[in-house]
Amino acid sequence: MKLTISLFLVVIVTLFSANAFAQPYILLDKPAYTYGNTVKVSGNVAYQDGMIIIQLRSPSDIVAIDQISPSRSGKFSIAFEAEGPKWQESGTYTVIVSYQGQKTEKTFQFSKPQPSPTETPTTQQPVQEPPPPKPKITVKGFPDPTKSPQHYYDQYNTDVEFKRWFDSTFVGYTIQEVVGYKATRVAEFPDQSQPPQYYIDRYNNEEPFRKWFDQYFPEATIYDIVGVTEQIRTIAPSWVKQYAKLWSSEEIDDSRFIEGIADLIRQNIIEVNADIIKQDSLDKTIPTWFKRNADWYSQDLISEDDFLSGIQYLIEKEIIVV
To answer: Cβ distance 139 to 304 under 8 Å?
Structure first.
């Protein structure tokens, strides 16, 4: 009987040890911070060879990002200074710890004291307005619904850089297959010289056009006919994700990946705020944690925002140059 109980306890302890830290465990030294404080982040992970990625996010932006190796016991600790141009917004902030495909979040309160309304600045010491929070970089749909298929046909035939980007991104597809309208039962409708948004606006705002459309196309929506549902909402993210998968599996090398991402930015598929774009740099070393992020993104283990925040980090460190 004692032997049975002992074995049962061993099984429980073993299962607990294997699963207790399946996800990172986060500790903060305080529940709230003010401008100028030190934010101390610590915790535990189930140790494996690899780096822990730690992000601190305000309600609208990433304010800090770093990486750290855990100890053999799985413990980690890191500190961030809550000051500088990014720490301007009071509210709920989030600590995000990513490790080996697992992610855990913890929130804390942050406050940035504002000048007293009774304080009147002198002309010799003007008040400096803090810079606005930097917007995230984003993936934009392609093709742009405000541009007509004919616009892209002309650009493909006259712009060498656009043609090179299109042919390398949409391998095996013609420009007409990707951006053009499909033939319908009504001759010359939709008109290739009109953008999708033109027809969407007409359908939403012109009753005669809406009645005509519904009569001739009772089985389809205006979005189906102009290709918005099929192309604009899905094609860009899927190609970016495929590119991340090729690189993380080493089917393309670092230099080609960097140039490919730079091409996506130049073509406005990935949109980046101009003030984070740097000049050229000789150092093209990509941190190993970002390749791991690319692999997780390709498998839907992390979000698109997480992947894009890594690209923003590479741009700010002048590893990707646009």
So the answer is: yes
> Does 1 map to a domain?
no
Structural domain of 178: 149-232
Helix (H) / strand (E) element for 152: namely helix 149-158
Out of 232, 260, 279, pick the residue that ends a domain: 232
- Count of the separate structural domains present in the chain: 3
pTM: 0.38
Cβ 166 vs Cβ 217: under 8 Å: no
Whether residue 224 lies inside any domain: the answer is yes
Residues 6 or more apart in contact with residue 23 via CB below 8 angstroms = 102, 103, 104
Q: What is the dihedral of CA 167, 170, 172, 173, to 10 degrees?
A: -100
27/64 same-domain check = yes
Encode pLDDT of 76-117 as tens digits.
888 888 887 778 888 999 998 888 878 888 999 999 877 655
